[in-house]
Amino acid sequence: MALVKATMFGELLGVFSVHQADPLTPGKKIAKAFKNYLLMGQNAGGFTTSNVVDIPTGMTIGQVFLSQLPSGAAIGSQIATALTSMAATYMSMNQIGPPAVTPSHTGPLIKLFSSPQASGMSFSKELAGILDDWTKTWVVSGLIPGSPPIPFSGPLS
Question: What is the DSSP string of 83-106?
Answer without folding.
Answer: HHHHHTT-EETTB-SPPB---TTH
